[in-house]
Amino acid sequence: MTLQKIADQIASFEDTPSEAGRPTGSAAGGSSFESLIANGINQVAHLFLSLPGITAHSVLVSDLSSSKLKTNDGLIALAKEQRKIVFRLPGLDLGETNTSPVTINEQWLKRTYKVEEWYNLKISELADKGWIPTDEVGFSGISYPNIHKGLSIEFDGTVLFIEDDVLRLKVLLECKSAKSSNKVQIDGNAHERFAYQNLEYLELAALYPRTQLLLLTNDAFVRYRNKYHTGFGVHGIRLANAFAWYDFDMVSTSSQYIRLFERWLAWLEGK
Q1: Where do the domains of the chain lie?
Q2: Residue 15 pLDDT > 90, yes or no?
Q3: Is the pLDDT of residue 23 over 80?
Q4: What's the pLDDT at 136?
Q5: 18-31 burial, b for 16+ CB within 10 Å, e for fewer?
Q6: pLDDT by residue (tens digit) across 213-231?
Q7: Rounded CA gap, 40 and 42, in Å?
Q8: To pair with 175 at 20 to 30 A between CA atoms, which of 96, 131, 137, 256?
Q9: Cα 203 to Cα 195: distance, rounded to the nearest angstrom
Q10: Axis crossing angle, helix 29-49 with helix 3-11, rounded to the nearest 10
């Protein structure tokens, strides 16, 4: 398997056409695409391991028992000298390694965040705008923060770039696939959910420096007409220009996936 073939497999993925009457959210394309990406990362890692000095390691999580991780979450680490890349994504598995495990801080691997971390900071400003109800409704006045208490936002995975045991960058992964039943325009509008995820990342990044939001898609987003791919890019540029802490990247085509894999390798090799 070559980087080209791995990239082609991921980019060319497309779920089966939409079925009339299928309930919203019941399509399995998203989970299938995530599995394909995980398998692709497994294959890329094996290619990297054929190069001098790169080793694979299992991962131990400090301050968190493995039983508390989601049962299908995969953790793998690649290392060369003082640099490591650690991946967390359901489906990752390199099998048995003959090297000692690396221990990673639980907070670094985290991919689920309570929205109250940033929502509660703005409660007084919401009140000043008159947006918090004073009527006798379910959540009003001082009970308003309970409306979102305990609710969270979850990303599909994480990639950590560690040097000399210092976290240099944490990448939050979002995997989105599109399909087209008529082979002209992509189906549905579920991808608008990413716009919400993107704004939540903007708030999160203000609290967690050295993070990046990386959107991985299939190339259906650029094979068929749609407003989403351009919108993702335009919104990313606008937010990056306005907020210094916001960092966004997007990968959709085979050549872009190859570029991403080569960047990972270059970072490992200190280039």
Answers
A1: 3-13+29-115+151-268
A2: no
A3: no
A4: 87
A5: eeeeeeeeebebee
A6: 999 999 999 999 999 999 9
A7: 5
A8: 96
A9: 13
A10: 170
In the predicted model, is pLDDT for residue 67 greater than 50?
no
Global model pTM greater than 0.90: yes
The DSSP secondary structure of the chain, one letter per residue, reads --HHHHHHHHHT--PPPP-TTPPTT---HHHHHHHHHHHHHHHHHHHHHTSTT-EEE-EEEETS-GGGS-TTEEEEEEEETTEEEEEEEET------SS--EEEEHHHH--EEETHHHHGGGHHHHHHTT-S--SSSSS-GGGGGGGTTT-EEE-SEEEEEEETTEEEEEEEEEEE----SSSSB---SGGGHHHHHHHHHHHHHHHS-SEEEEEEE-THHHHSB-SHHHHHHHHHHHHHHH-TT--EEEE-SHHHHHHHHHHHHHHHTT-
Residues 157 and 90: beta-carbon distance below 8 Å = yes
Strand partners, 154: 112
Q: Would you state the structure tokens that stand for residue 154, as one six-digit string? A: 């979850």
CA distances from 195 to 89, 191, 236 (A): 22, 8, 10
pLDDT band at 29 (very low <50, low <70, confident <90, very high): low
Distance CA 198, CA 95 (A): 34
What is residue 191's predicted lDDT score, i.e. its pLDDT? 80
- Calculate helix-pair angle for 254-268, 3-11, nearest 10 degrees: 130
Characterize the bridge pairing of strands 211-217 and 248-251.
parallel
Q: What is the mean pLDDT of residues 37-51?
A: 97
pLDDT surpasses 70 at 106 = yes
Residues 46-72 have a mean pLDDT of: 80
Please say if the pLDDT value at position 21 is more than 80: no
